[in-house]
Amino acid sequence: MGTMCKAFVLVVIALVFAIPSRACAKEKHFEQVRAFLISKAARCTSCHIAAQSGKLNAYGERIAGLPNDDPLADRIAALESEPSGMADAQERRRAEKNRDVDGDGVLNWIEILADTNPADKDDKPTVDRVKHIEAVISCKLCHRATNLPGEGLAANPHNEFGELLSTTYVKRSGRKNPRGPDAERAAAERTQILTRLSLVRKNRPKKSKATYWQKIRLLHGPADPDDNPSREELRSFKKQIKRQKGRSKRDPNLGLSADAHKPDGFFLDAAKLD
């Protein structure tokens, strides 16, 4: 290959990688939050043919088919991931089948958050429910917009919740902590996203009875002042969380908190959430 041809190829490759992604500015952060929400909303029957059965359904088999040496947290996230921009047609088809195991047109994670079965094509949420979940559990959790002209925060400006997380990090007593906005943002970037959520789990937006995290768990926009859970919805959620922390009254079929599914991978960073 001639020198000019090589130079042209390098330019094309550089342009391909320079094309802004249509996904979230921090896609890994979003995938981990989404996977954690799946772990909280899933039921035994999300992965098994029955609550007390060891036999897996199609969704459970797809997760089990991923490398067994990977933590369950990583496998859940991987199954829901969009294919990369460099994926070929076959890889894209495989990813699409993974993300909608029962082929009913609704992604697995949406079905689980909507309390329907990701392995049963006859059990799926309404169109309005799907649209609502897609709107809330999205880049809008932390960003007012994405992929605007420019780079960095200019292209992906934070909303108030994103601003809070962007300066949240583990402060060490007896050690020198970062000073100044740039240093604090750098420290926050080095802090795992679920750890940051744990650190701000008690923070509430103005004029809201629910915390930012409670709003997310109840599928309400954390930074949307007009999207708040009702008093009864919030009360019921708090009671459920309290029950699930106990042993006598907890629902053993709700969430991946059973003895068979100990928290692993990045789920360990969320030990204090809920």
Q: Describe it for me?
A:
It is a single chain. This protein has 274 residues and is mainly α. The protein has one domain (25-167, 179-270). The chain has 14 helices and no strands. The chain has helices at residues 3-18, 27-41, 44-47, 58-64, 72-80, 89-99, 108-113, 127-136, 152-155, 160-165, 181-189, 193-199, 212-217, 231-245. Helix 2 (27-41) packs across helix 5. It is globular and about 55 Å long. Mean pLDDT is 88; it is low at 3-23.
Keyphrases for this structure?
46% helix; 14 helices; disordered N terminus; mainly alpha; 274 residues
Count of distinct structural domains: 1
Poorly predicted regions are 3-23
List how many beta strands DSSP finds.
0
> Helix tally?
14
- Mean pLDDT, to the nearest integer, reads 88
Query: Strand-residue fraction?
Result: under 5%
Structural category is: mainly alpha
Shape: globular
Q: Termini separation (Å)?
A: 59 Å
* Helix amount: 40-55%
Report the biggest beta sheet as strand number plus sense, adding barrel if it closes: none
Q: Return Rg in Å.
A: 21 Å
List SSEs in N-to-C order. Answer: HHHHHHHHHHHHHH
